[in-house]
Amino acid sequence: MGLLTNLKDSISRVTDGLFAAEEPKRIGIYGPPNAGKTTLANRIARDWTGDAVGPESHIPHETRRARRKENVEIERNGRKVTIDIVDTPGVTTKVDYKEFLDHDMDKDDAVRRSREATEGVAEAMHWLREDVDGVIYVLDSTTDPFTQVNTMLIGIIESQDLPALILANKTDLPDSDVKQIANAFPQHETIPLSALEGENMDEVYTKIAEYFG
Amino acid sequence: MPEPTPNVDGGDAPSDDPVSDGESSDSGVRIDMISGARMQGLTSMEKIRLILDGVRDGNIVILEEGLSPDEESKLIEVTMTEISPDDFTGIEIETYPKAEASDQSFLDKLMGRESAQKLTVIGPANRIETLHKDENLISTLVSRK
Ligand SMILES: Nc1nc2c(ncn2[C@@H]2O[C@H](COP(=O)(O)OP(=O)(O)OP(=O)(O)O)[C@@H](O)[C@H]2O)c(=O)[nH]1
Ligand SMILES: [Mg+2]
């Protein structure tokens, strides 16, 4: 089963990590469901390692387990930055399996998806308190950023003094409003991008190197 | 014969706490307003238990002073572990952070004390719906059970 393989993978990766010479910084990709976290994680991984992190989907809570891509070496202006990227499940305070029933899922699948989602979010919150060295916070720039979840998460990240980069994703869409995001979190730098189309990735990599190097 | 327990609909959570005790009626919406002083003596997990026990009973919980970021993070985590199909779908939470400048005293800033003084409203996700929110008003629709 996928879950078991994942678990095995991550255990062996954890033990591998114990023997690594220098620990790369662990960068968590956080944000609400459907913001494009996995699309971004995949793009970063493909650009610098050649393979992907996990499946993307328009159905919320596609990512239900944090997935790690280790030793991603990003080169910027002659400097090399090595990071582990952790793609996390979209954070929320509620999950109702009934919402998945609209996506052509039967009840068993929907219940399973919601259970996995809740476990994944719990795990991601735990990681954020214990195990992350920096955060890339991804927002869908076509949606309202003034949500309680965003406010709480940014507050949690700030209280831990973690370096944080806010990405305003989906700038390829006509409704994209980057300014609204910049206004919502004026204490942070907001970088616009389209993870799907690969727009403005150069700046994203420059900022990753600057913030997490 | 043991005395009949007054807490008939208390669910599985043992509630020896005076706040989450008592009758939550089927006909109305119960609101628990918890003062900052009441919260101050509690550990993080006790606060979270107090909130979630109330919310899982169908109540709206209002905190005079809110939670610290760390407690909010734990609240999300514990909420997630308690969600179960057809029983508990999670929480809705809204806060009023007071304006940064007026919120934190000079001394608080100096001591690195984070001021957690923010009015916080928490309710069951399936019964509470935020209609409108801005800096001055939270408008919430609470449905009956
Ligand atoms: N137009 C557009 N769509 C995007 C962009 N990035 C992601 N998407 C789409 O948004 C949807 C969600 O993307 P994901 O990468 O799965 O989002 P996520 O944040 O990982 O979602 P969860 O894992 O469910 O929390 C998919 O349909 C993506 O194709 C973008 O830059 N532009
Ligand atoms: Mg994802």
TrEMBL record, chain A:
This is GTP-binding protein. It comes from Halorubrum laminariae. CDD domains: Era_like. Residues 26-170 form the G domain. Signal peptide: none annotated. InterPro entries: GTP-bd, P-loop_NTPase, Small_GTP-bd.
